[in-house]
Write a structure and sequence with these properties.
two-stranded antiparallel sheet
Length: 474
């Protein structure tokens, strides 16, 4: 008589098996949903910008976003530090069925002290953002030639909303570090969907730069809901004072943070800096063309990086448990999948730009006159984005950035930061070349500035750091 066999688990569907093979868990899935939504609805937003904005207003629209990115100079890398330090305590903690944070008392005490520290930090950062970057941006726009664009009130409002968003940021980072990315990324996806709809509606209504304000307001509402409603008991536990071990800022936070801060500030020169540069030297129209193209490409790059960002808490936990074999397996798979995604997306984007150039000046047959309004809008898009040549240069410049982010995602959970010198030199040198070539040769010069430093310094440098780090562990 044969022994009864244990029931076999049901076979997973092929989409689920495919997602698992691509290392897509819930956190990665929602992050990709958010990025894919942005990338797919980007053309719609682009069409609305082209249809309802003048070329000058388009330049102001994207320059607003580039100047708001200066918040990295006051945030100073604290968000990344918070996620990694929180993840090191999380494997001793859990959230119970009522939503309260429980677990080992020493880990809970350390996490509470970290929460108090980062909340104070971001309160100061939000204040500095208003006083420094808000005023600097105001005078930057004031120094430009007079236009009909209404920018003063929208700028003041978006600066205020960004400051409040900064003050809410540490709470989201604490949740991410506590392995709640499947939830926070779901909220980010809903935030992205609603934000796009609100921004598109605002643009369609003819509100101009108030679209930037509307998008920032939607983000703030979702984050406050997540903090005050969805995880209210989590934060009620976390913010309650309790004696016990404390996180030492000078020994545990600052040694990593100052290195991240320098790199975060320098990173501005490899991301948003190029847009206000074009605004200053080439005018609002060229800044608008580059801003629209660069925004689409950076959305693609962030989508590819979602695989790494969503697994940051897992990396931290694996390091704390000394499970290097599993860490290496996950890292290799994630880096391969994310790079292929970036390559595919970049090729498709360049193909779209090429097709737009191909149909430039082509008139529809008489029988298709009913499609003339849509065709005219598509023709107009071609004049509001960069031509194919600079677009290809900027697309190729994404790969050095992606490789660097993959290497940093692997090593930083070890609480080590061997990138300081290389990353700072790479980013500052990139900014220098982008400024030097860009002010004279426009977007083409800026594209070559990115490429020269990226492929001659960043790629070999970061791969060498990774190779040496792995050899030391072995």
């Amino acid at each position: 008589m044969t022994e009864p066999r244990d029931p076999q688990p049901p076979r997973r569907s092929w989409p689920r098996r495919l997602l698992n093979r691509m290392e897509v868990n819930r956190a990665v899935f929602y992050a990709l949903v958010n990025r894919c939504w942005q990338f797919l609805t980007g053309p719609i937003t682009m069409l609305l910008v082209v249809a309802f904005f003048s070329s000058e207003l388009q330049g102001y629209y994207y320059t607003f976003g580039a100047l708001i990115a200066l918040q990295a100079f006051v945030e100073m890398g604290m968000q990344v530090v918070t996620v990694y330090l929180t993840s090191h305590e999380w494997h001793k903690l859990e959230i119970d069925e009522r939503g309260y944070l429980t677990g080992e008392s020493s880990a809970l005490s350390r996490l509470r002290s970290l929460a108090a520290l980062v909340l104070k930090w971001y309160a100061i950062a939000g204040t500095l953002f208003v006083l420094a970057i808000g005023l600097a941006g105001y005078y930057f726009f004031l120094s430009q030639p007079e236009t009909d664009v209404i920018w003063r009130a929208p700028w003041i409002c978006i600066v205020g909303l960004t400051a409040v968003n900064l003050m809410a940021a540490p709470c989201i980072s604490l949740l991410d570090g506590c392995n709640q990315m499947s939830v926070t990324n779901r909220y980010r996806a809903m935030q992205g969907v609603m934000g796009t709809l609100v921004v598109c509606g605002t643009i369609f209504s003819g509100a101009g730069l108030w679209a930037c304000v509307a998008g920032s307001a939607v983000r703030l509402v979702w984050e406050l809901w997540l903090i005050a409603v969805r995880y209210r008991r989590f934060f009620a536990t976390l913010l309650k004072p309790q004696p016990g071990p404390q996180v030492n800022w000078s020994e545990e936070v600052w040694p990593l943070q100052w290195k991240l801060a320098v790199q975060a500030m320098a990173a501005y020169f490899t991301s948003a800096f190029v847009i206000p540069l074009m605004f200053e030297y080439q005018g609002a129209e060229v800044a608008g063309q580059l801003g629209l193209t660069w925004t689409a490409l950076m959305t693609l790059q962030m989508a590819a990086n979602s695989w790494m960002l969503a697994r940051a808490p897992l990396f931290g936990s694996l390091v704390s448990q000394n499970d290097i074999t599993e860490l290496n397996r996950v890292f290799r798979r994630l880096s391969q999948v994310s790079t292929v995604a970036l390559l595919t997306g970049g090729a498709l984007f360049c193909l779209v730009v090429w097709l737009l150039q191909l149909i430039k000046g082509v008139e529809l047959p008489v029988a298709w006159n009913s499609f003339e309004p849509a065709w005219s809008l598509i023709q107009k898009v071609q004049t509001r984005i960069l031509p194919l040549y600079p677009t290809v240069l900027l697309t190729l410049s994404l790969f050095p950035i992606h490789i660097a982010q993959c290497v940093m995602a692997y090593i930083r959970p070890f609480k080590q930061e061997p990138f300081l010198v290389l990353n700072t030199i790479y980013q500052l040198l990139t900014g220098l070349l982008v400024w030097y070539f860009g002010k004279t040769y426009g977007p083409v010069g800026a594209g070559w500035g990115f490429l020269i430093v990226g492929y001659l310094l960043s790629v070999p440098g970061f791969l060498l750091i990774l190779k040496r780090f792995v050899s030391r562990m072995n």
